[in-house]
Amino acid sequence: MKAFSIFLILIGVLSFLSIFGVMNLTFGIFIGILFAIIFGIEGVRELIKGNLVGIGGLLFSAFLFARVFVFSASAGQIFLALVASYLVGIGLHMLFRRSTKVNFWSD
Q1: How far is residue 88 from each of residues 19, 43, 48, 57, measured CA to CA in Å?
Q2: Alpha helices, H only, the chain
Q3: For the purposes of burial, counting CB atoms within 10 Å of the CB of 6, is it exposed (0-12), middle (13-18) or buried (19 or more)?
Q4: Tens of pLDDT, residues 41-61
Q5: Residue 107 confidence (pLDDT)
Q6: For 70, phi and psi rounded to 5 degrees?
Q7: Whole-number Cα distances in Å, 65 to 33, 49, 98, 100
Q8: Phi and psi angles of residue 21, each rounded to the nearest 5 degrees, phi first
């Protein structure tokens, strides 16, 4: 519930900035911010659990925030950034995890 309240405060502040002409808040920017927050929260949760895969979520969240406020990207570039960020996270998780034994046949 706290994350949702912070999200509402962020959207409210951005709406006021849009009203006063400081920045332009459109529906696309709103959706971009929403997904950046979702991926950021997911990344932090995974890192708290000890999974380095969460770094992928944080990298993609940073990319989405940069896309919203700094530069524009096509849909293909966004998908490629998603895949690349999670590949980095999975690679780091595989590199630094304590157990390297994988058992596919156990339940």
Answers
A1: 39, 13, 18, 10
A2: 2-19, 27-49, 54-69, 75-96
A3: exposed
A4: 888 888 888 777 788 888 888
A5: 52
A6: -115, -55
A7: 7, 24, 32, 34
A8: 85, 10
Distance between CA 28 and CA 24 in Å, rounded?
A: 11
How is the chain split into domains, by residue range? 26-96
CA dihedral 78, 6, 23, 68 (to 10 degrees): -10
Tokens of 4: 């949702």
Q: How many CB atoms lie within 10 A of CB 53?
A: 19
Nearest 5°: the CA angle 70, 87, 74 is 35
SS3 35: helix
